[in-house]
Amino acid sequence: MELLKQKIVNEGKALSDTVLKVDRFLNHQIDPQLMQEIGKEFASLFQESGITKILTLESSGIAPSVMTGLQLDVPVIFARKRKSLTLVENLYSANVYSFTKQETSEISISSDFITSEDTVLVIDDFLANGQAALGLIDLVKQAGAKIAGVGIVIEKAFQEGGSLIEEQGIRLESLAKIASLSKGNVTFEEEETI
Ligand code: G4P
Ligand code: NA
Ligand code: NA
């Protein structure tokens, strides 16, 4: 997605060989126009998939998911990372290990919102080692729902998340695929360094 790549080049910052900072439009300040275009892109990619629900993870997955839900006219559920006062019974939960934080956290959704009748699109802001996406896929499976695919805003294609998802035979659509972040330069897959 050209607009997104331009935004990454113009406003993103490679903090190291592995971490891209995009606080100016995705992870802290949010660009609503860009999120709307991202929503249209995911909606057009998955419009023939019979999606009934979108599942994401708080917090940065919510903005692109809501815009996609608006386009596809389906509800959006975000899995919670912390225990909620009101989300106490009939939960589906999965453990997600973070390589960056070196800790395992439990993500949960209420069983009220995804059922075996649903076809679910999983969306997240970043795909790195894939643990969050695999956790979300696990929740969809616990609900007995069908997985239409995974939509990612920014995939770090040099990490293993993409292959872990595709190994499961699940469709993966990433709007920007980063091949490398070395020396502060963002290189997209199949393109030269910008
Ligand atoms: P890992 O597999 O590389 O160990 O990372 P992990 O999925 O555990 O991700 C930890 C957090 O860091 C996630 O956000 C994830 O989206 C984010 N993340 C991973 N790689 C990058 C990166 O290169 N740049 C940025 N900006 N974020 C990255 P989170 O903690 O769930 O935060 P949020 O959703 O509340 O914003
Ligand atoms: Na994040
Ligand atoms: Na995230």
UniProtKB/TrEMBL annotation:
The keyword Acyltransferase does not apply. Pathway: Purine metabolism; XMP biosynthesis via salvage pathway; XMP from xanthine: step 1/1. Xanthine binds at residues 20, 27, 156. Keywords: Cytoplasm, Glycosyltransferase, Purine salvage, Transferase. 5-phospho-alpha-D-ribose 1-diphosphate binds at residues 128-132. It is found in: Cytoplasm. The keyword Glycosyltransferase applies. It catalyses: XMP + diphosphate = xanthine + 5-phospho-alpha-D-ribose 1-diphosphate. It comes from the Bacteria. GO terms for molecular function: xanthine phosphoribosyltransferase activity. It is an enzyme of class 2 (transferase). Its main location: cytoplasm. Its EC number is 2.4.2.22. Residues 32-157 form the Phosphoribosyltransferase domain. Homodimer. Converts the preformed base xanthine, a product of nucleic acid breakdown, to xanthosine 5'-monophosphate (XMP), so it can be reused for RNA or DNA synthesis. Belongs to the purine/pyrimidine phosphoribosyltransferase family. Xpt subfamily. This is Xanthine phosphoribosyltransferase. It comes from Virgibacillus halodenitrificans. The gene is xpt.
